[in-house]
Amino acid sequence: MSQSPHMSLANAIVAGVNSDKNNDNDNDNDNDVKNINERLRAPIGKIVCVGRNYAAHARELGNEVPTAPMLFMKPTSSVVSMHHGVVLPNPEQFGETHYEAELCIQLTEDLSAATIEQAQQAIGGVTLGLDLTLRDLQTTLKDKGHPWERAKCFDGACVLGEWLEPQVFGDFKNVQYQLYINNELKQDGDSALMLFPVYELLVNISHAFSLQAGDVIMTGTPSGVGILQAGDALTFKLSDHEWQVQVR
Ligand code: ZN
Questions:
Q1: Per residue in 201-219, pLDDT tens?
Q2: What spacing in Å lies between the alpha carbon of 37 and ligand 1's midpoint?
Q3: CATH superfamily of 9-246
Q4: Which of 34, 111, 196, 204 could potentially form a cystine with 211 if both were Cys, beta carbons 3.0 to 4.6 Å apart?
């Protein structure tokens, strides 16, 4: 079990953080990052994604605004660290790949039919992630009424930054984050605009199925999704953290 791919991936993310150490001149902050990753050495579990958690994004894709969280999952095999960059699926074979920048939560405790307080205590780490989506394929699958896995679960489809301390983000109702592509602001996220805020999401999901320590929640993308191209330079900003990611 200790040689499972997601374990090596979790370690890769930790290693990515450590390799960044020399570039970070804020030592206190650097220690926070190191500590949180030590606490999160549990392997990454399932990745639960929330579709249409921002009304503006639901509308931009011509979807109805949901009345309950719309959930789907990605497998652990889809996860890569931001430090490894994004490898685009061949557009000739797979069509357009879209970026979706999302606030991501990792749990350090199990949650089953949880209360708000339990949800609050279970959050161990926070980061930004990319929910990569083969949009042409997804549209075809949606039109047929088929599941989306082929469009959402490919290797590299879940790109995660390193975990930050959750305390910085308070009750998660006022978290701003941005995605820039080639220095142009593409997605301007604000958790205040979530249809289902973070704690309520965790409670709702935990009543549908159990969440376990290590599981990751991708909380949904704000409006501004679009096509990724090879050569794009991505900049993610969350609190005082910034990630640079190259698309190949
Ligand atoms: Zn998404």
A1: 999 999 999 999 999 999 9
A2: 24
A3: Fumarylacetoacetase-like, C-terminal domain (3.90.850.10)
A4: 111
